Amino acid sequence: MKNILLIATGGTIASLATDNGLKPFFDAEGLLSFIPEIKEMCHIAGEIIMNIDSSNMNPYLMAEVAETIYNRYHEYDGFVVMHGTDTMGYTSAALTYMLQNIKKPVVVTGSQIVIGKLYTDAKKNLHDAIKFSIEGLPGIFVAFDGKIINGTRAVKIRTRSMNAFESVNYPYIAEIKLGRVIYHKDIQDIFPVDTSKPFKLQTSLCTDIFLLKLYPGIKPDLFDYLKKKYKGVIIETFGIGGIPCKGDNILAKVKELVDAGLVVVITTQCLQEGVELGIYEVGHELAKNAVICARDMNTEAIVAKLMWALGNFDNLKDVKEFFETPVSGDMCI
Ligand code: ASP
Fold first, then answer.
1. Is 85 a catalytic residue?
2. pLDDT tens sequence across 208-229
């Protein structure tokens, strides 16, 4: 039987319902007693490395998760990370860049409802995550509501429902139906597993980045502040890449950021289908200005990739080259 390490970080899945609301709690044995079938599937060890609501997750704590996996790598065949759902997509993306060329599975999961409740999704999600970790497919994944999602593609799109996560701009890796793993039929083509490069831990993330969502009426003076304070700015533009350039000229301010040496990543506030510079005149202007086009990446992965790139390279050319090179299916068009 395979050896799987269950790493608890907190969230609803590691909480108990009390009269005063949800309380952080983790006990691997106690948790697994709700799913006795697991004992016949693999050997499980549990380790609690933090017990936080995932709203309090940050790059340093993400690095702790990655370090735990790295330090225990040779003892286990796979890893399951229990995590709050709110920032799970950010952590799964960050782990993808931190645990480079990993040769074992890391499956991140959580739940909308605590394990002791009648309608809990914790039992199924935990079971599915463990089941998928036994499969041995290398990479970082999210297991939720019977779906296995590429770690760079998981987006929380619902606050209450069991199907809280969507695989955005990317097919599901697999579904788990009645305990059976059913892979996407083109899994070999869609999910890149590169076994030629060595496994490496690289946890430096630069937090000097800003994520800006445009809205009609946005004021240009904000950009003067951004220019002084940050190394990188991600701009969620309108539609396929629209930025206001009449009246308050935001496009001109974006160019100022680039001229000041900041790394500017252009994405869209639309959830699906990505951004493309060059379709409209505004985008054409931008494309000439050494901005990075995030294409069909989702915001969670963009944040993690930009933090990683700025944490590991000190010039725009290398940051741009790394960012524009797909990693684990984070960018497809
Ligand atoms: N607020 C919780 C968290 O993200 C929600 C959850 O776990 O579902 O930690």
1. no
2. 999 999 999 999 999 999 999 9
